[in-house]
What does this fold into?
Amino acid sequence: MPPITDVLVPNRGEIAIRIFRACTELGLRTTAIYSWEDRLSIHRYKADRAYLVGERGRPVDAYLDGDAIVALALRKGIDAVHPGYGFLSENADFAQKCLDAGITWIGPPPAVMRALGDKVRAREVARRAGVPVIGGTDAIESVDDIREFAAKHGFPILIKAAHGGGGRGMRVVSDDAEIDEAFDQARREAMSAFGSADVFVERFLRQPRHIEVQLVCDHHGNRVHFFERDCSIQRRHQKVVELAPAPNLTNEVRRKLWDYSLALANQVDYASVGTAEFLLEERDGQTEIYFIEVNTRIQVEHPVTELITGIDLIKTQIRVAAGEPLPFYQKGVRFSGHAIECRINAEDPDENFRPCAGTITRFRPPGGLGVRVDSYAHDGCRVSPHYDSLIAKVIVHQPTREEAIRCMQRCLAEFIIEPLKTTIPFQRQVLSHPDFERGSIDTGFVERVFTPSR
It folds into this structure.
């Protein structure tokens, strides 16, 4: 593989800045792109150079125009692309375009992305690897397929987009009367978000735990796991608080999660970083584990794994893309302490989490030992209505989970973001709940315990 010297990041916000920092520390040149609406965004100033892509009035298209991005890279002599998360990060066609142009793709091979990016195909990969999956269908063509599945498995059921994630293109169906509308909504949302209306159906688990395992693999057959994260605290199927390691798991369940994840990676000859995601259901006193998907990119919540292992995942990902072998084997990867991440969004919890755009006049993040803040925000920063509402991620690392919770509670109390409404009051309510402190959490936690302050 050719050496990497100049990395273009077709992304924005905190993840673009995160990647630029890692590249700079590796001695690499960095290149940013930005939309006209993002012309004052700080991510463009964190790179060595930055270029406008797209036209005014098309703020999202700028980060999705693969042809324009590849053409820019060729004109400027850029030899590598790191997509971050979101936008083109799981687009196998874009990855192939980069490779066909002689540009290093900092991610897994396109064939692997295709095998795992389609959730229906990924379920078949899991079966071949001996990993259990939730009872479900292939891609469905009509509501008749849904009714046939419901007649066999009962309600509730879940309609899911075959491509993409993040809770989009997903509908829970509780009875027959909801099927037609849910099918249409899921297909429309899937097409809008992922460019494909394909959906499938699976059995809906009531209040399971959502656990994921970080994978790190090279092109030389060395594949390791970096332990697990608990992402059960979710709102509308979107993660809001993540913990590493996951609390209240038996050693047997942990080992199964790690082994299943490595089996998936081995099945497709995975290379780069990735995340295997699972649902855990308690049935008859036993913990049942079901595969959901593999995300073939860096995750929003990757910092909690970095803090407990002390290993920079972005730098590792870049080195792997350059053809370097991993400098460690499984026995050499250890974790210490406990980490928590809170995603701070510009949303009003008292108004059903309505997104809040506008200019931040005061931005005062927390600090202290074991505290990390990943953000693009600053005094005078404009939070755009055109993009995701994530403003910042607060991550803490402490010797025990109890100390990590107390540290995060202090950080949230200390954090000032004015005048926009944010999810900080909601996060504080979550962190102070006795069930959270005990680690008794599942995907229904927010709906059960959160109460708007008004």
